[in-house]
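I have been asked to look over a protein record a colleague put together. Alongside the sequence sits a line of tokens, each denoting a local backbone shape. I have pasted the whole thing underneath without changing anything:
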Amino acid sequence: MTAVDMLRALTPNSGDVSAITLQALVDVAEDDFRAECCRDDIPAAAVSIIARMAAHRYGQMGAAGLQSESWSGASETYLTDYPEDLKRSMHRFRKVRLL
């Protein structure tokens, strides 16, 4: 299963989203993965992590730059980075960079 297929499965309300948008989200997630893990490649075992990263980005669409919002006593705060569980999942793929 490709990362785009997994992303579509993880975000059931993505039926109206174009394949180009989903692929762009996966591309951004792959770039973030490479940067975070200091890698030039993406291991096959990391496809599910890439899909979860893209799903996180999908959930943030439309909320770019919004840190918090309060209406009638109810407030919302949006994350600006990936959640800790995703970061921990990436650690096993991290390469050490020597200086």
Remarks:
- The chain has a mean pLDDT of 86.
- Residues 3-91 form one domain.
